[in-house]
Amino acid sequence: MSKIFRLSFWVTLLFFLPFVAVAQNYTVRGKITDERTKDPLIGVPVAVTEKLSTGVFTNQDGEYKITLPKGDYTLVVKYVGYEDKKVKISLNKDIIENVSLKSSSIDLNEVVVSSRRADENVAGVQTGVEKMSIQEINQLPVLFGERDVVKAIQLMPGVKSAGEGGTGFYVRGGSADQNLVLLDNVGIYNASHLMGFFSAFNSDMVRDVTLYKGALPSQYGERLSSILDVQMRDGDNQDYHVNGGLGLISSKLNVEGPIKKGKSSFIVGARRTYADVIARAFGSEDVKNTTLYFYDLNMKLNFNLSDKDRLTFTAYSGMDKLGITDVVDTDWGNTVGTLKWTRLMGHKWTSSTALIYNRYSYNVAVDMNQDLRISSIINDYALKQEFTFTQNSVSSWKFGVHSTYHDMAPGKFDVAEDKGVSKHLKNKYSWENGLYASNTVKATDRLEIMYGLRLSAFSVLGAGDFYNLNENHEVIDTVSYKSGEFVKTYFNLEPRLSMAYRLNEVSSIKAAYARTTQSMHLLSNPTFASPFDRWVPTSNNIKPQIADQFTLGYFRNFANNLFEFSAEVYYKDMRNQIDFKDNALTFTNDDVETELLFGKGRAYGIELMLKKRVGRFSGWVSYTLSKSEKKIDGINNNKWYDAVQDRTHDISFVAMYSLNEKWNLSAAFVYYTGNAVTYPSGKYQIDGKEVVYYTERNGYRAPDYHRLDLGATCVLKKTKKFYSELAFSLYNAYGRENAYMIEFRTNDDDPSKSTAYQYSLFRFVPSISWNFRF
Asked: How much is the pTM?
């Protein structure tokens, strides 16, 4: 009986701990920034001399908050690469104390200023979180001279490249569309350029990159596997700066500075490729009539309206252009805009309100005696409202709502009147909502818990005709709905729980559980993904995908946080997974639901990582052993089969070395098991025609992939006012011919046999670019 009483006591105490009041306390809050650039500094420790046990770290906006009893205190701010600073405060009311840190005289080539606290690997409550500083990303070898956020993330454990040169990625056994890529909190439907060889992010505009692949915080939803959160830099509100770069196939330029000094700032950036222009200039006949380029435009405006109010406007537009004169003219791209108002409401509450517009579209014009034009548009209109409540020094809350209206025109196929019949696929309308609350509480000195709940609601809306299907996925009935009418609404509760127990100062164990749902689905060609793959929303026949993920991890740091080690195991159970029928027609089909089959999936694995964070030599080695499978009635005799993204082994080695003040060297090696693929098992003749037949879905393996990339950076000039460098890289240094696509064709010598032909994209790809800043 006494054991039951003690257990009840601790459970009750844990539940009510966040609500324990702290009497006669006051709060000091503020922002830690770089004195020169005014960029926020993330993960900065802020300690209190008079209370050594009290201290916090700045969040991703560089903000800190400490609640203390009335009295006089000294704040101590220490951060790698910056001079220490002490600030005396008198706390007899709630106050704001902003701190600017000055760069130290330490050679920053020997230091990586990270976007995280030094011991976050051990102390952070979340599992499955990967953070990268822009300094780390800029040191990695590159493809075509372009530093790439998404390719850098692919070198982390549990994250797998979707293919040669591409920016698509798989996380913990999930498909590529199960990752939500955010730019300043706005989802990007297609975060790549040039068919996937470049990402949509200009690295010079990026401040911070975080990948959540485990138990997602409750404020995130809408995707099953991961959230890639990319935050843009704030402009300097003190001085003007220009930085950019010139490469072999692309150039970029960014400008930033104050609108009103100390009160408001701007930063604008542009990037464009010109490979086709260069080729034509050198007289290449192959590209004489070809257009091939992409561009990015970024802008961010910041206004400090008062000590308590901040207004931010973010805009992005990116477009790809591909054309062959008199044959085809194609473009696709994203346009997003966000207006965000942040307000401090007293010393405990913060409000954040954002209005969001997001558009993705593609257009294809074909002139092959048909005058065919194809187009598709997705328009999203969203509202995000979030409140942060800091109750006391051990508990903080987040509450919020996210509402999005989706307007999708999946496809218009317009043909000249005398050349055929035009076809317009029916527009799809839906309303997606998420209501969430979460609490982070330090239950004891060793145990920290983050728990929360998200309620997702996805409503299918009219106008339009909606089909009822039988068990064979055939249309048996059609029901018409008027504009704005509710066809069906799906509600899902998504509990989230993360716990970290600190074994000692250098090690911890963590456990987590999360349920996630996804209501937007990408119907993609499993062999060759393209920007024209079709997004479809959840409908009366397509249910939201659901995943339950369990994670357990051990984390250990060595040598005063110089080395980090982590080992995580995970199991993911997935429902309402989607796959195609054999020979499915999806691109022009208005009844696309009749071509789909549904079932379940599972993914499990172990991720190991050893990382050296700072010093002249830094880098990491990561290894993932995993499995990803599906079981869908109507496929593979209703048995489990490997998902396309299933890879048994995935290994990355990354090394960065500061040779001296001028030269920095880097190398990256990757190896992974080939994707699961479906190859023909044989063929036969019917009435003189050759028919290929298939047996097992994804029953074969593409060849294993491996590659070594080398990079070097030479500093040409480095002063307080001007910096320039040359960046060299060699992609695929030993010329491995990795398989990009394998095609089966009839053997010329023996027509009864077929021969496999492998296509490879890149062997040795050298590049050079000049980057500058002043």
From this structure: 0.85
Residue 138: strand, helix, or coil: helix
pLDDT of 729 reads 87
Q: How confident is the model at residue 285 (pLDDT cuts 50, 70, 90)?
A: low
Rounded Cα distance between 23 and 389, Å, is 17
Q: Is residue 315 over pLDDT 90?
A: yes
DSSP 306: S
> Between 49 and 638, where is the model more confident?
638
Q: How big is the chain by its Cα radius of gyration, in Å?
A: 27
The pair of three-digit structure tokens given for residue 11, joined into one six-digit string: 């459970």
Coil, strand or helix at 727: strand
Query: Which residues share a beta bridge with 663?
Result: 714
5 sits in which H/E element: helix 2-16
SS3 697: coil
Of the segments 71-80, 385-394, 459-468, 754-763, which one has the largest average pLDDT value? 459-468
Q: Are 176 and 190 in contact (CB under 8 A)?
A: no
Q: How far does the chain reach from its first CA to its final CA, in angstroms? A: 72
Under the banding of pLDDT at 50, 70 and 90, the label for residue 696 is confident
Note the pLDDT of residue 18.
Answer: 45
Whole-angstrom Cα distance, residue 720 to residue 37?
12
C-beta atoms surrounding 583 within 10 Å: 7
Beta-strand ranges (E) seen in 485-616 are 486-504, 507-518, 520-523, 534-537, 545-558, 563-580, 596-612
CA distance 420 to 371: 9
Whole-number Å distance between alpha carbons of 154 and 620: 13
Residues 377 and 394: their CA atoms lie apart, in Å, by: 47
Assess contact for 78 and 87: CB atoms under 8 A. no
Per DSSP, the three-state class of 687 is: coil
